[in-house]
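It is worth pausing here to work through a concrete case rather than discussing structure prediction in the abstract. The textbook approach is simple: state the sequence, then state the predicted structure, then interpret. We follow exactly that order.
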Amino acid sequence: QEEDERMEKLLDELAMLECDNSNNNNNPDKLANQTKANALIEQLKQFEAKATFFCIGNNVQKYPDVYQKILDEGHAAGNHTYHHLNGWKTKDKDYLDDISKAAQLIKSNLFRPPYGKIKNSQAKKIADALQISHSQIIMWDVLSADFDPSFSPGQCLSNVIDNVSAGSIVV
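Step two, the predicted structure:
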């Protein structure tokens, strides 16, 4: 009950909740990650909240039913590359080609770079990679730390609640 109230307060204050469907490096079980995505979609439905899911093209290809459910429930989807590449560690052409490959599956003008890492030279070419004229690169200002196995779900929620403010974008 208390956690539901905290979640409701959080969702009231957010401008955008971003959901990253990348493979959790600490949990390589992709099916478990997709089960979590479905659970999150159901929880958002319970609170009548919408989110933007930044999707990995490879996961969209493997789990089209989850991607379709995101869209069917009225959530937005954004491109998060095909292979969850780190822009700082990837040649521009390879990075942009990976985004274009994901764009074949994810029709969106929204892009969020994995790890928040993107070179200026890559950022200038995102619209071309997305194959859309008006693109937006979306970053965030609050990290939940749900990727860190040492954080419990309650600690992740507290981390968000303690750092969120009106207009926050949470990952």
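Step three, interpretation. Confidence is low (pLDDT under 50) at residues 24-30. The helical segments are 2-13, 30-46, 57-62, 64-72, 92-103, 120-123, 126-130, 153-163.
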